[in-house]
Amino acid sequence: MGESSYWTAARGQVSRRRMLTSMGATGIGLAGAALIGCGGGGGSPQATTTIAKSGGIAPAPQATSAAEKPKSGGTFRMARLNDPPTIDPMGNLSADSKSFSGVVYSRLLAYKAGPGLPAINFDTQMDAAASVEVPDPSRYVVKLNPKVKFTAPLNRAMTSADVKYSYERLIGKAPGSKPGPDAGVVEAVEAVNTPDANTIEFKLKRKYGAFPGAVLADARSGQIVPVETGTAFNPAEKMIGTGPFIFEQYRPGALGSWKRNPDWHLGADKPYFEKLEQNIIKDQAAQLSQFLGGNIDVIASLSPADIQRAQAAIKGVQVIENPVGNTRYIVFSKEDLATGPVKDVRVRRAISMAIDRDQMLDAAFDLPELKKLGITPTYHWDTFIPHSHEGYWLDPKKDMSADNAAAFKKNIAEATKLLAAAGFANGFSMEWHWTRGYARPYQVHGELISQMLKDIKIDFKTVLDDYSSVFIPQTFVGKFKGAALISYTLGETGNFVEAPFTPGLPRNVSGIDDADLNKLIKTYSEAASVAERQKLMKDMQELATKTMYYVPIPQAPSYQGAQPNMRGVAEYRSQGHAASVEQIPWWWRA
Length: 590
Fold this sequence. Notes:
This protein is an alpha+beta fold. The chain folds into 3 domains: 26-104 and 236-323 and 559-589, Periplasmic binding protein-like II (D-Maltodextrin-Binding Protein, domain 2, 3-Layer(aba) Sandwich); 109-216, Dipeptide-binding Protein, domain 1 (Alpha-Beta Complex); 327-552, Dipeptide-binding Protein, Domain 3 (Dipeptide-binding Protein, domain 3, Roll), CATH 3.10.105.10. It has helices spanning 3-21, 95-101, 160-171, 211-216, 284-292, 304-313, 334-339, 345-353, 357-365, 367-372, 402-405, 412-421, 440-453, 467-471, 495-501, 515-526, 530-547; strands at 75-80, 109-111, 124-126, 129-136, 139-144, 149-150, 156-157, 189-196, 199-204, 245-251, 255-260, 275-280, 298-299, 318-322, 327-332, 428-435, 458-465, 483-488, 551-552, 558-562, 566-567, 588-589.
């Protein structure tokens, strides 16, 4: 299939979907990148970009002026595409679980957010902690904020015992617990000591320069549950925490609702909204319809056609650019990487070289249509960290070594030679797993990759996995045959290489155990300075490209929409699954 055929096929599919829906909706649930936040960065992150003019595009985000005082009250209404696999924050890897519980359970630290700060930012601020001291590079001492209080029916202060219990429950050491899927995030912790009710000492196995941002502020593993979890209440049915909102109800397939916590330790005026509602709307067209009708305050993703529709339907609609905060890969099963055709690095490299990354960006993210709206996109090629991690990301177009850079460029002739040299001149076939549970760009990637690989006689046979029952509990943790399309939102920069490459961690779905990568990852985690970590991260991208255990797929920024009367959405943003402190409590309706 030639280049023009790729484009026609991808565009044709988009057109048919829009005709069928009559809406052109291409959103991702608010549990995804936009509302809940986009992971990335560290050091000197890229500044958040917003659409700052209305000439043919959309009005600029409504910045809160000094004279405009926040108003309290009302219900903030959001939508999400998927039900959480569980509401227990330690029970599943899924962002849908972490974001659902994140407004109830505090972390010790959070990421700084607010006016003048980028959305991709790993500087930390206090959440449940009052202070963090570092007596030596392998020991962190945390003092709790005495105002942190578990809500009814517990009605008591958080203590160091709760923090220790949460850690031990995560790693499977608490009575009746088993290791949680994100236990690997805290792998570096040797022990959690509690000298008194207000003090926690984290003793580490090694130096860990990024520990505050990578672990203490991490929303995947750092949500603190009370010691009564599992006895006073079932965490899969109820949530009792210390965060800005108090859990009310969850009706699968319909709604999750929370009310304001009047005793939140970071209040007392915040959160400004009296209630929070997360509506489960699994049809993207229906989400857009609800937004256009004013029934949703923020919609996580707008395509170019959606931007035009929103501009026509809502006077003063706000459109905000979201920096890329996740990575996306073609990953291979453990069995295939060990014994199949992809065991040979030449085959994996050929797969990468069969992909036209710029064309893929055009098809998945409608970049030509964005240009018509006056938005000038940049064609970044993501590697093993998102390109928004400025200072850490190594640009294959200009900064990477020549041999490795070649692996990112489409070159069918060279890819064919590599396959022949590996003994697969006639190609091969394998299962190709992906899901309809993510937004349109992911789905376009799933379809387009299999089309592009036909040019080198590789037949990726699509297997569509149900998101909730198959993809998340099985494919996402490596229980599949062949290849799969997997996205990771992993917070602090180092987690993007540590999680998918470290032996034994659940996101290492291919069972990779490379001595050179292991050494670099360990050295990175111990590095104290930003400059040293940036250099090591670039070294890791070179090595990860040379080995090409995963094949990176490029992504472009998305655009979220907010109703004209929403305030704070453009200023208070975060990444990963961290919305509890950084975002929603600071938003209000004028």
